[in-house]
Specification:
By secondary structure, the protein is an all-beta fold. The chain is 0% helix and 47% strand. The strands form 3 sheets. A 6-stranded antiparallel beta sheet has the order 1-12-11-4-3-2, with no helix packed on it. The chain has a 4-stranded antiparallel beta sheet with strand order 5-6-7-8, with no helix packed on it. The mean pLDDT is 87.
Length: 115
């Protein structure tokens, strides 16, 4: 495992449950769930929209078409939709599950991501 320190301190997650960070020019969503931190690619596999702030427990929702992803394993748990009765075109061979990352807080209090 190769953990990389990022410029976010763990105290950020005392007041919020998620944050998007850039690591090597790649957006990664970090979510606090059950007092642990989890990382996942912050780009929806449907149309490339940013998965930014709509996080409830361990589920993140894409703001564009409502696809939902589990941050624990990157799996899509709800496919995208235009309206409840009209599912979006979605290729089952799209890039799912999204890549997930181990996340920890080091001894200095900074967040580290296993790349």
């Amino acid at each position: 495992m190769t953990f990389k320190r990022i410029s976010v301190i763990g105290k950020v997650f005392e007041k919020r449950n998620s944050a998007v960070v850039m690591v090597d020019d790649k957006p990664i969503l970090i979510v606090k769930y059950n007092n642990s931190l989890y990382g996942m690619d912050a780009i929806c596999s449907h149309m490339g929209c940013g998965l930014l702030t709509d996080v409830t427990d361990n589920i993140v929702t894409c703001p564009l078409h409502g696809a939902k992803f589990n941050v624990l394993n990157g799996e899509m748990v709800t496919p995208p939709q235009v309206k409840p009765e009209v599912p979006c075109e979605f290729k089952s061979d799209s890039k799912t599950p999204l890549k997930t990352y181990k996340v920890r807080i080091n001894n200095e209090g900074f967040v580290e991501i296993d790349l």
